[in-house]
Amino acid sequence: MLRTMQILMLSLVSGSIAAAEDRIELTYRAEPSFQLTVSVEGTAEGHVLGLPNTGKLVLVSREKRKLLAQMSEVPAGETASLKMTGESSSESTINGNTRDPMTETVGPVVFTFDRRGQVVRTEVDPFEASPQNLMRFRWWRYIVQQLDLPPVLPEEPVAPGATWTAAANLTGPDGKPLKARQEFRFLGTSDESEVRTAWLRGEIVVPLELSFKSDEGVYKVEGKVRIDKLYAFDIDKGLPLGSTDRAVIDMSITAKRAEGEEFRSQLYMRADGKTTMKPKTEESGTADDKKPESEQTKGR
């Protein structure tokens, strides 16, 4: 019996070594007319300390985002652009008190990717740094709409355990470049329901150093966002299937009025979610898309 177990263990180790030596090429294969539906769902919980006339705030939020990513131009050489639009709906509580549900527009955001899926540049409508938008953290929503990113693929065939790095050139709400650092690791492959899936672990780190100035004063944000993702990638179709996501947000916020009064607050949040990506089909169109043309045009 012991010898049988030893043979079995040696067979497993030998098989693992052989598998580890296999290399696989991961490539995007999207056509120029490519469209991708993206669904994001998650929960977040965090604490805010130091707001004026306020004790500790405990925030609990549940959010859903439905997005459409559409190739906005024929790939030009080594790059192609995707335009992402959609909406976000959320429900939340503050210190246990329920807030009214909110629905907001996401985008339009235009990402220009290279052939690996690395973000070369991002174009977003300018952020209005009004006192209301700043105090309601709408600058954070401006950043979030740029973080639903597909994985960056390696430049050459890889074996399990291989790692690589990438950058994502985003746009900050203060109008300045916002550069995210990305690290990836190839975990291996699996065969599920006739789909060959590659599994990638990705970490996205976004350093924050924002400053907004107006006649009313100065508003500054310093901190860091770290997002951990486990991506599934369809090897044969050359498209991402989605990811499970975990994020940590740690920020220091300073607001100084023109009269000299200054406020400082700290925000710390953790969030968990799931992202699903799939090519758009007639069945996956919006509810409005599915209505007869006569109904779609009513009230326009």
Short description:
13% of the residues lie in helices and 56% in strands. With 300 residues, the protein is mainly beta.
Task: Characterise this structure.
This protein has 300 residues and is mainly β. The chain is 13% helix and 56% strand. The chain contains 5 helices and 12 strands. Strands 1, 2, 3, 4, 5, 6, 7, 8, 9, 10, 11 and 12 form a 12-stranded antiparallel beta sheet that branches. Strand 1 and strand 2 (57-71) form a beta hairpin. The protein is elongated.
Write the layout of secondary structure elements.
Blueprint: H1 2-21, E1 35-49, E2 57-71, E3 79-94, E4 97-98, E5 102-114, E6 119-124, H2 131-135, H3 138-144, E7 163-171, E8 177-192, E9 195-214, E10 217-234, E11 239-257, E12 262-279, H4 287-290, H5 293-296
Antiparallel strand pairs: 1-2, 1-12, 2-3, 3-4, 3-5, 5-6, 7-8, 8-9, 9-10, 10-11, 11-12
